Amino acid sequence: MDNLRQLAAELSKLDDKLVKCMRCGTCQSVCPIFAETVKESDVARGKLALLSNLASEIIDDPQAVRERLDRCLLCGSCQDACPSGVKTLDIFMKAREISARYLGLNPVKKLIFRAMLCNPRAFNFALRAARPFQKLFMRAQQNAPRTAKVPLAKFAIGDRRLPVMPEASIHEKYGDLDVPAKPGKPKVLFFPGCMGDKVYTNVTEACIKIFKHFGVGVRIPGNLACCGIPALASGDAEGFKTMLAHDVDIIKKIDFDYIVTACSSCTETIGELWPKYASEMPEYSAAAKDIGKKAIDINAFIVDVLKVDTLPKEKLQKTSKITYHDSCHLLKSLGISSQPRKLVKANSDYEFVEMDEADKCCGCGGSFTLTHYDISRKIGQRKRDNIVKSGAKTVACGCPACMMQISNLLALNGDDVKVRHVAEIFAETLE
Amino acid sequence: MLPTKDFEKIVGRGNVLASVADRQTYAYDSAVLDPVTPALVVCPETSGQLGGVIALCYKHGLPMTVRGSGTNLSGGTVPDSTDSVVISTQKLNRILEINEADLYAVVEPGVVTAKFAGAVSQKNLFYPPDPGSQAVSTIGGNIAENAGGLRGLKYGVTKDYVMGLEFFDSKGDIVKSGSRTVKCVTGYNLSGLMVASEGTLGVISKAILKLIPPPKASKAMTAVFDDVQKAADAVAGIIAAHILPCTLEFMDNVTINMVEDDVKIGLPRDAQAMLLIEVDGHPAQVEDDAATVEAQLKKNGASGIFVARDAEEKNKIWEARRKALPALARRRPTIVLEDATVPRSKIPAMIGAINEIAAKYELLVGTFGHAGDGNLHPSILCDRRDKEEFSRVENAIDELFRRTIEMGGTLSGEHGIGTAKAKWLELETSKATTEYSRLVRRAVDPKGLFNPSKMAAI
Ligand SMILES: Cc1cc2nc3c(=O)[nH]c(=O)nc-3n(C[C@H](O)[C@H](O)[C@H](O)COP(=O)(O)OP(=O)(O)OC[C@H]3O[C@@H](n4cnc5c(N)ncnc54)[C@H](O)[C@@H]3O)c2cc1C
Ligand code: SF4
Ligand code: SF4
Questions:
Q1: Which CATH number does B217-406 carry?
Q2: Which residues in chain B are classed under CATH 3.40.462.10?
Q3: How many Å lie between the centroid of ligand 2 and the Cα of residue A32?
């Protein structure tokens, strides 16, 4: 009971943010989870009501509130649409952190965050050790973008199709990558993120190709940890801060103009959350703020900083159709939507078509897809249906998490559609 | 004992929400009122299940609050007591028919207004009622509140599009009224009785709605005035010239400034009133009407007129109007969105009264709304947690309603009575009116189970 009182007291610090919700219900029209379940506790209005009730001790079942809070993709659609300007993402993240403190972290997640993501060496070792077995356990699918069935792991991951791991990760291949800038060109630090380093190495390679093409200097330090968002989204602020500290220690020693990522969640985390959380960590606060200011997404970097003229060279025979999926963090948090479209259209091999509901979440939501696969799959199916309806044979995304989710759904449906990162599509246009 | 198991037998286990966490999310709506947690929430997926649920409530004497999206602003879906069963219609969301030959559609009550309007426009037809909440509100909720919107002046409100209804009485038996025909006098106009009934007379399970051909062209413009009276004269002038704009919106000085603070689109901060006008119809007619409107605006002393030349400029005009509510809502923690409505000619007097009341009770009030039909939304910006301030808000609302009624106006143009305005009902009407309403309610709902404390409480 005492614990509950403390939990309530912690939550009531969010009251000024919670009270802004005018219960207008507008969030119902955009929430991907609500669209599937039509349940008020799944939409921001319901979650906020429950948090207010927990803060004022009107409900004494914090576990039930937490379960409902966890049914959320943190996609930011509600925050984006909210007429009242409620900072739902801030509230949900903070509430997850508070409830993790009082109710404990999920032990599996805790193991992953503390032992693996915080510790790049352990993470890399585990992956290297697992790679030879991949061929044994995974059955490659011929159609979809390099996904594989994992028959032996069905009990753990359901019927999910996982991406096939590359032979070598970026840091294995390059160690500390350091390409000097051409005179007058900017220097960037490329933050590959976990997926860009270990899974979608093609995306990182494409970015490197782009940087080199435009004479941009690029550094990729070899021992970066995760940006920390998976931990924070699960309420593990401590794990998050450990990763932040590890990365900031490495990055602050390097001289660069921009820190570029090809993952909108990483960009947002470095740009917004590192400075915010580091403000409670005296020795990191100034450095994190400085780094945060330089964070930029690859699409925005190419179009807004390099001011690349992307008019496609006219080609008479466009071979196939391509469409674009707006990743939530890219569109709703960073406000980036025209730049990736411009870059995709720059590739004259493709004919660009918009799909319906391009700005609707794919249903991944980070670890949401692991903990709530049923809903995640339903939301993903809707995305898949829209892609297929568009007639596109390739779908471009700006975020590796979306790529994984969409690949999975396309593979499950046996569709002949490729999933690529915008950077890959654009890099193809460069000699 | 609640017959939870029996409800589950009717609608399936997943559609009965019994945990306190789930129930607490059906305790409120968009009105600024205290929540009341219901005993159970039931979400039928078919009309048959809906009837079964009502019959079971009747059998056990359980009060029922039927709920669409819970966006009403008068407390119509706040449960009457902790014994109440909330019946959600949100899973009854199928568009059953859109008939292009006979210009009607048949829908279930939980269909979302904007989705319906979108599906209709795909068939190149038009369903005009467009409440500000249309992206979420349901057709059932629109009918039960007789929702209006921006297009009310020319196209009317929800009631003008209801051709027929099917609804359940309190025992769970089906009642049918109206038809798919334009004309129908078979029996009482029970559909008319259900309009604006706020869940007190029956539960709508199916609606036949009128559709019309869409206008072929439209033109939008704005005008600013240094005096509210001049804006009102311009509105009167436009109507006297026999032009019915499809939208004729108003923003006061406070609202103009708050929108400008937020979006910086260059609105004139010293303007006392701004009108946002759109005329639609046949292209030639639109040009004529727009010219007449412009002439009236000039004649009545508009200090600036802006006519949109293309779709983009038109969109800009409506963007300013769309931003009104968000701009106000973001200012303070709580927004009390009122709905007092007066005859058109009384708009200046009403704005005067609102400003006096705001000054007297030291409150921040921004007013916008539908100038064409006198339906204003004075919005009181406050902090509900501040007891002292909120009691001033309550006194201000009391006075606002008194003044509205003195001007020959009405308590609510479109937001409904619910519990929020029930206490003033008799003041505007008469004792016999509320008594008559109660008699009707008792006759059709002998156990008094349908939203018992709402409107004329039984
Ligand atoms: C931001 C905002 C803007 C708004 N703008 C407007 C506007 O411009 N014009 C306007 O008119 N209103 C407006 N409203 C008010 C509100 O959206 C409308 O009253 C709307 O019609 C309510 O629809 P709902 O589905 O949310 O109904 P609910 O709020 O769920 O229910 C409303 C009432 O209808 C009853 N009801 C619901 N379904 C049924 C049914 N099937 N059978 C019988 N009774 C039923 C309920 O018991 C309740 O009394 C606005 C509200 C908000 C929050
Ligand atoms: S849109 Fe914003 S204010 Fe409205 S209910 Fe959702 S969170 Fe609350
Ligand atoms: S963040 Fe996304 S999933 Fe979560 S409540 Fe908001 S809209 Fe729904």
A1: 3.40.462.10
A2: 217-406
A3: 15
Q: Give the CATH fold of the B95-210 domain.
A: 3.30.465
d(CA A227, CA A250): 13
| CB neighbour class for B242 (10 Å; exposed up to 12, middle 13-18, buried from 19) | exposed
SS3 content of chain A, % helix, strand, coil (to 5): 55, 10, 35
Per residue in A404-422, pLDDT tens?
Answer: 999 999 999 999 999 999 9
Q: Torsion angle, CA of B10/B13/B14/B18, rounded to 10 degrees?
A: 100
Q: How many CB pairs under 8 A join A and B?
A: 86
pLDDT digits (tens, 9 = 90+) for B182-203: 998 889 999 999 999 999 999 9
Stretch(es) of chain B classified as CATH 3.30.465.10: 95-210
pLDDT digits (tens, 9 = 90+) for B304-323: 999 999 999 999 899 889 99
Radius of gyration of chain A measured on its C-alpha atoms? 21
The C-alpha R_g of chain B, in whole angstroms, comes to 23
User: Which chain A residues are within 8 Å of B133, Cβ to Cβ?
Assistant: 24-26
- Please give the helix or strand (H or E) that residue B105 lies within, else none: strand B104-107
- State which H helix or E strand residue B42 sits in: strand B40-42
Pinpoint the residues of chain B covered by CATH 3.30.43.10. 4-88
Residue ranges of domains in chain A, CATH in brackets? 2-103 (1.10.1060.10), 170-305 (3.40.50.1860), 320-427 (3.40.50.10700)
Helices A62-70 and A44-55: crossing angle in degrees, nearest 10, is: 160
CB B25 to CB A38 under 8 A?
no
What whole-number distance in Å separates Cα of residue B413 and Cα of residue B416?
7
Q: Which amino acid is at B407?
A: M
The angle subtended at Cα B216 by Cα B212 and Cα B222, nearest 5°, is: 105
CATH architecture of the domain B4-88 equals 2-Layer Sandwich (3.30)
